[in-house]
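From the shared-data thread, chain only:
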Amino acid sequence: MNLTQLAEALQAKESVDKSDFQRIARILQSIWREEQGFSCQGEDLDAKGQKYLRGSRLKMPEAKNLLSNFITDRIQQVVRKEVCDQTASQGKLFGKPRIFENLLSSQPLCFNLFAELKLDIPLATDLAKELTSGRFCKVKAIEFEFSPGRRDTRYLGDRSAFDVFIECETATGGRGFIGIEVKYHENLIGQAGTDGDRKENFRYDQVADSMNCFSAGTRDELKSSPLEQIWRDHLLAGVMHDKDKYDDGLFVILYPRDNHHVSDAVAKYRNCLSDDSSFAEWTLEDVYSRIKKYSTAGWIDLFFDRYLAFDKVTARLKQ
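Structure, as tokens:
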């Protein structure tokens, strides 16, 4: 059996997948859904006018009611509080119903990785210290879909936000933060700005100039796919560091090691930097292994099984 045949067998063949990794990630999510005994969603019509199933989507409204997209009871409790509660989620751009039914979406991945850390600050502190070589010595809080002010011209004047925001204390006792953009299946193709978030926004150039970390002659590349979203999130970190009087701030892009769409974009982005002290990249595999260094909690292996157990796909191909 080849990859395409396996995708077809698992209702996971989608034309939007542009690489083997994207297809493998979709297949893995379909396998996980089957293993959990969850039904997949039937939608859209095929060439014969018949509905077809989508293996990487959970059936609604059950997925929303049961929060099936989230791997532990404690994570589900955080989601109920932060996503399902209309007051708490006001102003945050949680994609609904995508966050409930789309197994490949990065938003549920953020909760599946960071919600348990939000509830275990000592473990989160160990992780932050490990991943930043002691630059940040204490985690104070973890937030999701965080922006200091959407559409606020004191910042970027757009809707940019961090998927995960970690409020920290620096090694010297100062105020610090780590703003994280999470990617899983995404390929960074296409423009990041929509609904009025225009790449010619004058604040982008102002902030970029003030950060003084971008190489001369790279601005047009930074404003174009696949670098635009990385750049804008980095700018958000830069303007927050300035406007909110942080002593240190770091923007991180987090992604699976084999997602070459993202790793290639990160390499291109680094080539545009004259100073990379405010930018870092982490892989999901590395974050997983660092957490395992400090904890044996069961949720960590549940996370690996859900998102990183690509050997399951290899095993299916050999059947």
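The first strand starts at residue 40 and ends at 45.
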